[in-house]
Fold this protein.
Amino acid sequence: MKKVAVYPGSFDPVTNGHLDIVERGLKIFDKLIVAILQNPGKDYLFTVEERVEMLSLSLKKFKNIEIDTFDGLLVEYAAKRKAQAILRGMRAVSDFEYEFQMALMNRRLNREIQTVFLMTGLRWIFTSSSIIKEAAQFGGNVKGMVSPIVFQKIKEKFRLKD
Ligand code: PNS
């Protein structure tokens, strides 16, 4: 049986930390479904179409990847897609409480689906979509923290110069 994991997130936008987790995840799973949350109640910087495009272009070199969007409960989506696992990246201790809570709730909702945590590479330990957006918003250079295509999109969004 093929091992399939859903790698869920807002990906607003996808960072090099996310790409690092995808690369690591593909060493364990036969297929990863990168699932972008489309939550109508949440304000995103990028539209879901932009987030899909940035992920598709950033993940072009990887095989056995599918990019999809979902709303509602993650475990319901994962079950519908016949995934055995949910993949999440773990950076520092600060991630732990939120991730632990979410993993336990997801387990309570569906005991068949396991949450698997992978450690992000050390060089991405401080990066997050939020901190990257905050820095870029005030003109900070976030080159090297996101793929070149995402860097371009961020520059356009915040009307930053080269
Ligand atoms: O990249 P993020 O924003 O940290 O990802 C969070 C995400 C999408 C994994 C989480 O918000 C989620 O799964 N939302 C869907 C609703 C759900 O099932 N929540 C967890 C159990 S209540």
The two ends are 48 Å apart (CA to CA). The pocket of 4'-phosphopantetheine is lined by residues 8-10, 37, 73-74, 102, 105-106 (CB under 6 Å). The longest helix spans residues 93-109. The beta strands are 4-9, 31-37, 65-70, 85-90, 114-119.
